[in-house]
Predict the structure.
Amino acid sequence: MEAAGEEPPAVAKVLQFQRMVQHQLDRTVVWIKTRWSILAVFLLIYITRVILKQGFYVVTYGLGIYMLNLLINFLSPAIDPDSEDGPTLPTKETGEFRPFTRKLPEFKFWLSAIRAVVVATFMTFFEIFDLPVFWPILLAYFILLLVLTMKDRIKHMIKHKYIPFSFGKQTYGELTKVKAPGAGGGKGGKDDK
């Protein structure tokens, strides 16, 4: 009989594999541009496969809706300013600064997107997922959903005065530069004559 704290060998192997995968994912956190480039390559492979197969439009539509959902969650604040619960976004310049926290962090956005593209690509290998459909209707409906949801998200951003992107570190220019006494000015150096 096994001890109370030990797992069966198969479960131990699965846990070891999960730890190894998580370790590799954790190493990629700092490589933002590389991760998104890999996603772009995977998307390009998927799109090329769909074009060459001339099918799998329902799978593509599902992938597009899922990616749109991820994008909306990425652009949304973790705590909705419309609700009265919890801290709100600052409404004045003099208010306390609260950084923008996302409902879906960038790394989880990327990870969910890459998983979705891999699953969608895998689905293109099975004819059962190639449902006959008139694809222009799916495309028009997707564009309609994209426009309506992005319009709503932009209105929300304008109403609550937040921008879900940061463009580098904020600097204060000349205010933070400290001049050391005796530095510069041409006085007191051995080269002054």
